Amino acid sequence: MPVNRAESHPLDAIIRQDRMPHIWCPGCGIGIAMRCYAQAILQADIPIDNQVVVSGIGCSGRVAGYMNIDSYHTTHGRAIPFAAGMKLANPDLMVTVFSGDGDLISIGGNHLIHAARRNVDIKVICVNNFNYGMTGGQVGPTTPQGAHGTTAPYGNTELPFNLPYLMAACGANYLSRWTVLHVRQVLQDILYAFSKPGFAFIEILAPCPIGFGKSNNILNGLEEMELYLERCQIIRDGDVRADELGIDLRADNPIYIGKFIDRDRPPYQPVGAGEIQ
Amino acid sequence: MPVNRAESHPLDAIIRQDRMPHIWCPGCGIGIAMRCYAQAILQADIPIDNQVVVSGIGCSGRVAGYMNIDSYHTTHGRAIPFAAGMKLANPDLMVTVFSGDGDLISIGGNHLIHAARRNVDIKVICVNNFNYGMTGGQVGPTTPQGAHGTTAPYGNTELPFNLPYLMAACGANYLSRWTVLHVRQVLQDILYAFSKPGFAFIEILAPCPIGFGKSNNILNGLEEMELYLERCQIIRDGDVRADELGIDLRADNPIYIGKFIDRDRPPYQPVGAGEIQ
Amino acid sequence: MVARTCLTGKHFMNGDHACAEGAIAAGCLFFGGYPITPSTEIAESLARRLPEVDGVFIQMEDELGSIAAILGASAAGARAMTATSGPGLSLMMENIGLGVMLELPCVIVDIQRGSPSTGLPTMPGQSDIMQARWGSHGDYQIIAYAPWSPQEMFDLTIEAFNSSDRYRVPVLILADEVVGHMVERVVIPAEEQIERWERKKPTLPPDKNNGGFKPFLAEDDDLVPPIAHAGEGYKVHFTGLTHDERGYPDMTAQTHHDLVSRLSAKIKHNSEQIIRMEDYYLDDAQIVIVSYGCTARSARRAVSLARAAGIKVGLIRLISMWPFPEAFIRESCASVNHIIVAEMNLGQISLEVERIAKKPVEGIFHAGGAMITPQTIMNRIQELAS
Amino acid sequence: MVARTCLTGKHFMNGDHACAEGAIAAGCLFFGGYPITPSTEIAESLARRLPEVDGVFIQMEDELGSIAAILGASAAGARAMTATSGPGLSLMMENIGLGVMLELPCVIVDIQRGSPSTGLPTMPGQSDIMQARWGSHGDYQIIAYAPWSPQEMFDLTIEAFNSSDRYRVPVLILADEVVGHMVERVVIPAEEQIERWERKKPTLPPDKNNGGFKPFLAEDDDLVPPIAHAGEGYKVHFTGLTHDERGYPDMTAQTHHDLVSRLSAKIKHNSEQIIRMEDYYLDDAQIVIVSYGCTARSARRAVSLARAAGIKVGLIRLISMWPFPEAFIRESCASVNHIIVAEMNLGQISLEVERIAKKPVEGIFHAGGAMITPQTIMNRIQELAS
Amino acid sequence: MRYEIRFAGFGGQGVVLAGFILGKAAALYGGLEAVMTQSYGPEARGGASSANVVISDTAIDYPFVQAPHLLVALSQEAYTKFSPSTEVDASTLIDQDLILPKADDPVYSIPATSIAEQLGKRIVANMVMLGFLTTIYKRIPTEAIETAIKDSVKPKTIELNLEAFTKGYE
Amino acid sequence: MRYEIRFAGFGGQGVVLAGFILGKAAALYGGLEAVMTQSYGPEARGGASSANVVISDTAIDYPFVQAPHLLVALSQEAYTKFSPSTEVDASTLIDQDLILPKADDPVYSIPATSIAEQLGKRIVANMVMLGFLTTIYKRIPTEAIETAIKDSVKPKTIELNLEAFTKGYE
Amino acid sequence: MQVHGRTPLNIQQATTPHGAVNLILERCKGCEFCVRLCPQDVLFLSKKTNSKGYHFPDIAIGKAEACVHCEFCTLVCPEFAIFTTALEAAS
Amino acid sequence: MQVHGRTPLNIQQATTPHGAVNLILERCKGCEFCVRLCPQDVLFLSKKTNSKGYHFPDIAIGKAEACVHCEFCTLVCPEFAIFTTALEAAS
Ligand SMILES: Cc1ncc(C[n+]2csc(CCOP(=O)(O)OP(=O)(O)O)c2C)c(N)n1
Ligand SMILES: Cc1ncc(C[n+]2csc(CCOP(=O)(O)OP(=O)(O)O)c2C)c(N)n1
Ligand code: SF4
Ligand code: SF4
Ligand code: SF4
Ligand code: SF4
Ligand code: SF4
Ligand code: SF4
Ligand SMILES: [Mg+2]
Ligand SMILES: [Mg+2]
Questions:
Q1: Are B30 and B206 in contact (CB under 8 A)?
Q2: Residue A241 CB neighbour total at 10 angstroms
C-alpha cells in the first residue's frame, strides 16, 4: 500500500522549498537538525521577521541557504562575529548561528571562545559530525582519537576537544548536547535557548556517512543512528564531571547527552549612553 | 655608601646585552619574567644551542629580541603555530613561546587552545598584565570586569577568561600561575616544564604601570607588586575548583597561584614511518 | 549626559581623532576593531564617543572578528566601521572579499605604517595601496581615499560612508601615520550641513515582491541593487558563493561571470562620481607630479618652490585612490615632458600611471619611515628641468 | 615498510597528486595545511606520503596556523610547504609578509578556484595572480609559478623549493582547479636526477663570527644572505620589525629603506635566472598571445588552428608569473600588430603587459568557472587578423 | 585524432575508475596521449556523475570533453542528461539492465549489471562496460587496459575486475 | 613666515601638552596656521620626548620641524640631543633648574621647576616655559594661549596652569 | 506537533485510523531513517525508486492502519519528505 | 643561585659580610623593586640620578654589612642591573 503522495510539506513555508532537494547526502543528519530549528522558529513566540540565521562554510553551513528567513552564509569560521555584529546593531533580532564543528571549532575557534566569554546573546547550533564533511572527510578537532579520515589515513593521533568542557570554561551561559536522533529534545532545547538571554551552545551529533562514515566503516547514516541509540546516555547538570564529557567512539564509553550548563550570566551589552558618568 | 659599580651582569651571556637597556618602562614586570626564563636556560640540562624562544607581538613579545639564543619575533598571535612548526621539524629543540596575554589569548586564542588540545611539546610563558601594554593600555580578554582601559573609558563590561580553567578544558598537560614577585617559583617551574614532555602553560602576572596601572589608579609597578603580596594565595592542584581560578582585582578575592595541573598525556607526535601499517 | 552627536566647531586635533569624529558625524553606529598602532586612537576615541550617541563600540578578539562584525552590523542596517594598520588589513582580506561579494557597505580605515610585516609600527608608510586593490583573492573593485590632513580625515570619513552606502561596497581610507598623528585645525560643520547618502532600499514591501525580493538585481543604470536588512521582512539570502539575483547559490560559470563583472563594473561605471582629486598649475606644466596623502604635502611645497624658481611644474593630488582616475591621468600627462610620481613606497601608483600614461615615469620612492621631503622632490624637479 | 622517497616512473595522476609527489621528490619534510577545495588532495596525498619518508604532516586549525607552522619549520631547517585556495591564501597574507621579511623559504600552493569570496569552490579560476604579488601589506617581491599540466605541477613544485631556498623567499604555485584535478601522464625521474639547490649557509662556525653571525647581511652579488637555522648555535634573531643585518630591530627610515629595497632587489636582480617561459611561433608573429596555466592550453590550441588557417600568431606562455618577464615582453611585443592576453579573470596580467608593452592589449577574460575555450580565442584571432 | 569518451552514471557505480583506467591504459601503455577529468563538488554528489577521457595521438591541449564520440551510460538519468550533447555519429553504449534508450537512438547495449551480478559483484559492471567499449573503440589494445586495471584496483580484486572486463568484450 | 618650535624633555614633563596648547592657540585663536607632531612608540617611551610645532601665516605643507627656530628644553638629555639640530640663530629656552647649557650657548633661562614648585605643582613647569616663550616668540597673543589653556587642561587645574603661564612671562 | 506552516496542498486523505503518511516522492533520498525508527514498524523501503534512483518508504503489508501519528518519521526525515497528518477517529 | 653565565668583569669586592651589592648604573630605571623587596632593608633609593634621569638604589645608612646575599634584589630587578656576589666570610 503506497503512502500518500504530497507535493508540499508542513514546513515548506519556513524553508526555501524552491531550493529543495538540498545538497546533503542520503543519510546525512544535517537536514534533521535544520528541521528541528525550522520547527522551533515556527513554534517560538518571536516574530519570524526577527529570526536570522548565520552560517559559516561547510555542509552544515549550507543551512543558511535553506531557511526561509533572513539568512547569511558567510566565510569559513566567521559566522559568530558576523552574527554578533548583527545582534549588537539590532538587538531586536534573534540571531542563530548554524554551522559545523570544523567551522565553529577549528578555524572559528577563537571567535567561539570569545563569544562564549562575553556571553553575546546569540544561539549557536553546532552540527558535530566528527569531521569536515564538505571537503571530503578530513579529520578535525572533534574527530575521536584513532578514527580515520582522508587526512589521517593511518588514524587520528590527536585528542579531540571535549566541547562542553571547553564551552563551560569559557563561561557559556547555556550548553547542551544531543544527537539528531533526539529530535524532540533538540526542538525543545532550541525553544528554550530562544527564551533565554545570552550565549547558548547546542551541539548536535549527526551522521556524515560520506565523510566520517566512509573512513570509519560506518556504512550509512542509519548505522550511526543506531550507534547513538546504543551509546547515548542522557544526564543532567552535575551528573558527570565536565572533564568526562569528551567523546570516544572507539571505546565502549557512553556518549553523554543532555543539558550540561544553564546559568544566568548577564548577556553582553555594549556600554550604553545611560552608563556614562 | 654606594653599591659597587658593575659593567656586566652574571646573566649577560644569555641576554643580548648589546641591546640593553631594553624598551620596557620603569616598573614593568616583563624583565623579571624574562630574567627567570634566562636563568632557567642556564640552569637546565639542555644544550643552550637547542634552546629557542618564539614570541608574538607586544611588550612581552619583545623578549625574543633580548634573549641570546636562537630567537624568533613573529607576528601578533602566531607564535604558537610557528613554534609548533619548529619543534616538529626538529624535535631536538626546546622551544619556548614567550609572549603576552593579548597576543596569546586574544588574537592568538585559536592556536593556544588547539596546541593545548594536541599537547604539542612546547612551553608557553604568558606574561599577563591584564591589558595590551604595547599599544597603550587597551583592555583585553584578561582585563578584569570593571577595570578601565583606553578602549574602556567607562569600565570594562566583559568578563575575562579564567585562563587556567580554559587551558584545563583544552587538556593542557601542565599548568601554573605565578606573579613576577614569585621569582624563585617561576624559575623552578620553568625548569620543571623543560623536564616534562608536552604542552606547558605558565601564566605570570606582571605589573604594567604605564598601561593597566595608569588607567586603574595603580601608581607604579611597586604598588602592583604590593597588591600581589597581599592578595596572592598559593594553592595546590585540587585545592580550588578550576572554575574559581578567575581573577577579579576589584573585589577582595584572593588571586590563586601555584601549579594547577600536572598530567602525563603523551605529547603530540606526527605519524611516523614506524606506525604505518 | 547630553549626547553630542557632532562636535560642530573648530578643533585642534590629530587625524585619528578627526576620523573618529567624521564617523560620528556620518552617523556611524557600530565600530568593531582591534588596537594597532598607529590607528589605535580611532578606536579609543570611538570607545568614548559611540556610547554618547547610543552607538556600539566593541573591541573584538582580532581583526578577522572585527571585519566580520562590521559586515554583520551592516547587514543589520548600521553604518559600521573598523580601523587598523597593515598587519590587521592583511588579516581582513578574506572578509573584505565577502563584503564585496555580499555588497555590504562598510568603512575600513588603514593608517599605514612602515611595512611589510611588523616593520615600523610607529612610523609612516604608503605601501598598502596595491594591497587595498588586490589583497583579497579574486577580481573585484573597491573604493579608497587617501586624506592628506586631519581635516580630510574628517571629511573623507563621511564621504567614505556615503560612497559605501551608495555603491554597496567596502570603502577603504588609506591614510598614513603622518596624517593620523599630526595635529591640525579641523573644522566640523553644523550637523545639518553634513551630507548623507542613504542606501538604496526596496521599493515594494516584502510580500509584494514576486518570487522574493532580489537584493542582487541591479535594475538601475548605476548597477547598484537595493538592499534589505535583516529584520525587515524580506527573507533575504546573502552568500559568498556565486549567486543569482535572488541571492541563491548558482554555481555556473555564466552566473559567476555576470556577477563578478557587475561588481567591478558598478565601480568602474560610476568612477566619475567617485573620483576625487585636486590639481595645481596643470595648465602650462611641462612636468607633472602625481602624489597623494602626506607625500602630496611635500609635493605641493616642492611645486611652490619650483614655480618660484620659474620651473613649469604642476601637481595632481589623488584624493580618491581607487578607482584610479585613468582618463584624467591620460589626458593630463599626454603632452607633458616628464611625469614624476612621489609616494612613500617602492612604486605602486607609479605602475598605474605608467600603464595609463604609456610613458616612462620618474619615481620618487621611499620604503617608509619618514616623509619624503620637499627638498628631495625639488631636487628631482630641478634635475629634470635642466 | 620501505620508504618510497620518489615514485620514479610513469604515472597517470592528477595535478594535486603530482604536486604532492613533487614535494616528496624535492625533499619536503614538513607540510602544515588546512583542507580546502580544490587543493585538498595535496594534503591528503601528503598525509599518506610524508610519514613514509619520515616527514611531518600536520593538519592545522586554520590557514593562519598553517603558514606560521611552515615558517617555523623552515626556520628549523626543513623544506616546508602548505597548499590552499583563494580564501585560505587571503588568510595567509599577513604571514607571507613575515616570510618575506624574515627571508624564510617556503612553498605555498594555491589551486585557484572561481573567486572572489567563496565563489565557485569546485570550479577553476586564475584570479589570485595580483593577490600573490600584492596581497600582504607593504612592498615586497615574491616568486610564483603557474603550471599548465600535472607534469608541470610535479616539476614546478621542485623548482619552487629550489628557488625558495636559493633566494630565501616564499614561493607560490599559482595553479588552477583544471590543472589540479585533471589526470594526465606524469613522469617522475630517478631520484638522483632531481636537482636540488641548497640554502646558502654561514661559512664560519658560530664562534668565529665577530659580533655575531649576520643572517641579513648579503655580501654576494645575488643579494641573498646566508641563513642559519635554530639549533645550529648561531644565536640568530629573526624579527618582522625593521632590522639590521644582525637581525636586530632598528627602527629608522634608512634601515627600513635599505632592507625593503634589498628584499625587492634580490628578486628583481635575479629575475633572469628565475623567469621561466615558453614561446611558440614568435618569429614572424603579427599577433602575440600571452597566457598561462590552463588557459594557455586553449591558447596553444587556438594558435595551432590559426596557423593552420595561415594567420601569423605566436604564443608566450608564462611559466613563472612573478617576477614578471618585463624585458622579454617588451621586446617580443615591440613590433607586433596586436597583443592578446587570455586569462581566466577580469584582466590582471594584461595590466602588466599593457604597462610594459606600452600598447593597448586585447583581453580575453572570463571571471572563472570554466576554461576559456580554444574557439573563443580563435574567434578573437580571426577578428584581429581580418 | 582527438577522441572524446564520456562515462556517466550514479556516484558509486565506478564511472571515475573506468575513465581512469581507460586514460591510464592510453597514456601509459597504449602509446597515446590521454587526459581524464571528472565532475566535483557537493552539487555533483547526488545525481549524475561523469568521467571524461580525451585520447589523442598528439599532445592534448584542451582537456575537456565537449561532444563525446563515445558515451558510456550506466544510468537512465546519465543517459538522458548526456546523450543530447554527443557528437553527431557518436556511439552510445548502455547497460541495458538499467537504461531504456530513446526509440530512435541506435545504441550498443549489453546487460552489464546482470553479467556483473553473475560474477558475484554488481560493482564490476563498470569493467564489463569497459570491456564492451573495446569492441567499438579499438585504438587501445586490451592488454594495455588489462595492465592498467592491474595497477589501479585493489590487489585482491584484480582477478574479478579482469574477468568482468573480459566478459565485456567477449 | 614658517616658524618651527620644538619642546623637548622627559616623558611626564608635559612637553606634548605645551606644544599642543601653543599650536592650538595659533591655529584656533591666533589667526595662524599650525601643525603639531610628536614622537611615538615604545622606543620613545624612555629618554627624550618631544613636541614639535610649525606655525605659519600661510598653509603648512611639510608638517615636521626640521631645524627649529626655537628650542624649549626641559631636560639635560633633551638639550644635548636637540640643540645641535637647531636653526642658525635659533633661540634656546631652558629650565635652568635642570639644564647646564654648553658654555658658548647663549640660551634664555628661567628657573621653571622652582617657580612651578612654588605654585605647588612641579608638573606645571611646562606652562612656565610656555609663558616664558611668549617673551621671545611674540607672534601669538598671550590671550590666545590662555584661551587654549582653558580648553585643553582639566577644569580643576585651569587656574593653576594659567598662573604658571603668567609667571612664565611676567 | 503544532505546525504553523501553511497546509500542504494535495494531501489525499488516507484511511489509516490515527495518522496518514504522506511523502514528497522526489525529495526522498532513501536513508531509511523513517523506516527503521518508526516505533510501529509502519513503513518499509520500497523496491521501487524515484526518478533520482532512490528507494523510498512505503506502508508495510498489514500496516495500513498502524500509524499512531507519533510523527517520529516526520521529525527524523532529513529531506522534509515524509510527514503524517492526523485522521479524525475513523475505524 | 647558581649562575652559569660568565663572571662579571669588574666587580670590586666590597666589605659587606655575606653579600656585596653590585649595580650596572646605566641600566637602572629606578623601579624600587630591589629597595622595597629586600628582606634586610639594605637598600634605599638615592636622590641622585643616572644619566637617563633615574634614581637608583644605594646602600642604606648603617646597612653596609647587612646584605645576606639572599639575591632577591637580583631576582626581581627587571633591568638586569643589580646583583649581589657572595663574600668569603669576612668580619
Ligand atoms: C578559509 C577557508 N578555508 C578552508 C575552506 C574549505 N572548507 C570548506 S567547508 C570546510 C570544513 C567544514 O567542516 P564542518 O564545519 O565540520 O562542516 P561539515 O561539512 O562537516 O558539515 C572547509 C575546510 C574554506 N571554505 N575557507
Ligand atoms: C595583526 C596585528 N594586530 C594588532 C597589532 C597591534 N598590537 C601590537 S602588540 C598588541 C597587544 C599586545 O598585548 P599583549 O600581548 O598583552 O602584550 P603586552 O604589550 O601587554 O606585553 C597589539 C594589539 C599587531 N601588531 N598586529
Ligand atoms: S559529506 Fe557528510 S556532512 Fe556533507 S552532506 Fe554528505 S553526509 Fe552530510
Ligand atoms: S607599556 Fe606596560 S607592558 Fe609595556 S613596557 Fe610599559 S609597563 Fe611594560
Ligand atoms: S507517525 Fe509514528 S507511527 Fe506513524 S509512520 Fe511515522 S513514525 Fe510510524
Ligand atoms: S526519512 Fe525521508 S529521506 Fe529518509 S527514507 Fe524516509 S522519507 Fe526518504
Ligand atoms: S641580596 Fe637580599 S639582602 Fe642583599 S641586598 Fe639583595 S635583597 Fe637585600
Ligand atoms: S630593581 Fe633594578 S631597576 Fe629597579 S631600582 Fe633596583 S636596580 Fe634599579
Ligand atoms: Mg563537520
Ligand atoms: Mg598584556
A1: yes
A2: 8
The answer to whether the beta carbons of residues A58 and D87 sit under 8 Å apart is no
Q: Which ligand gives the minimal distance to the CA of B211?
A: 4
Q: Using the Cα atoms of residue A147, residue A151, residue A153 and residue A157 in order, give the sign of their dihedral.
A: negative
Query: Can you say whether residue C118 is alpha, beta or left, with left for phi > 0 and alpha for psi between -120 and 50 degrees?
Result: alpha
Can you read off the three cell numbers belonging to residue C347? 612604486
Strand order in the sheet with D362-365: D277-280, D313-318, D287-292, D338-343, D362-365
Structure-block grid coordinates of residue D299: 591558447
Closest CA to D303 of D293, D288, D325: D288
Say how far apart CA A174 and CA A168 lie, in whole Å.
Answer: 9
Among the listed residues H31, H79, H37, H73, the one whose alpha carbon sits nearest the alpha carbon of residue H56: H31
User: Does the Cβ of H57 fall within 6 Å of ligand 8?
Assistant: yes
* d(C-alpha E100, C-alpha E116), whole Å: 19
ipTM: 0.97
F30 Cβ under 8 Å from any chain C Cβ: no
- Ligand 3 centre and the CA of A29: distance in Å? 8
pLDDT by residue for chain E (170 residues), tens digit each? 899 999 999 878 899 999 999 999 999 999 999 999 998 766 566 667 899 999 999 999 999 999 999 999 999 888 999 999 898 889 999 999 999 999 888 899 999 999 999 999 999 999 999 999 999 999 999 999 999 999 999 999 999 999 999 999 98
> Contact at 8 Å (CB) between C42 and C16?
yes
C-alpha cell at B207: 605589573
Do F63 and C297 meet the contact criterion of CB atoms below 8 Å apart? yes
- Distance separating alpha carbons of residues F131 and F154, to the nearest angstrom: 19
Check F47 against H52: CB less than 8 A apart: yes
C-alpha distances in angstroms, G33 versus E12, F3, G45?
Answer: 21, 84, 10
Rounded to 5°, the CA angle F84-F42-B19 comes to 80
The answer to whether the beta carbons of residues D312 and D286 sit under 8 Å apart is yes
CA C127/CA C107 separation, integer angstroms: 19
The distance of Cα G14 from the centroid of its chain, to the nearest Å, equals: 11
State whether the beta carbon of B64 lies less than 6 angstroms from ligand 4: no
Residue position matching grid coordinates 625593503: D260
At least 3 CB pairs under 8 A between chains A and B: yes
Q: What backbone phi and psi angles, to 5 degrees, belong to D335? A: -115, 15
Comparing CA positions, the residue from F94, F133, F127 lying closest to residue F110 is: F94
Query: Rounded to an integer, what distance in angstroms lies between the CA atom of residue A110 and that of residue A126?
Result: 15
Nearest to B7 among H7, H24, H74 (CB): H24
Closest among A60, C138, A143, D14 to E40, alpha carbons compared: D14
- Tell me, what DSSP letter sits at residue A76? T
Question: Contact at 8 Å (CB) between E74 and E19?
Answer: no
3-state secondary structure of E25: helix
Sequence-ordered alpha helix ranges (H) in C182-252: none
Residue type, D10: K
Burial track B102-140 (b if 16+ CB lie within 10 A, e otherwise) = bbbbbbbbbbbbbbbbbbbbbbbbbbbbbbbbbbbbbbb
Region for residue D253 given its phi and psi (left: phi exceeds 0; alpha: psi -120 to 50; beta: otherwise) = alpha
CA of G67 to the centre of ligand 5 (A): 5
- Cell match 607534469: residue? D151
Residue F115: all three cell numbers together: 617657580
Residue B27 CA to ligand 10 center (angstroms) comes to: 14
As a whole number of angstroms, the distance between CA D139 and CA D264 comes to 8
Question: What is the model's pLDDT at position A1?
Answer: 63
Q: What residues of B are in contact with residue D54 (Cβ under 8 Å)?
A: 272-273
**Nearest by Cα to C173 from C184, C181, C163:** C163
What pLDDT digit, counting tens, does each position of C133-178 carry?
Answer: 999 999 999 999 999 999 999 999 999 999 999 999 999 999 999 9
Sign of the C-alpha dihedral, residues F144, F61, C285, C275? negative
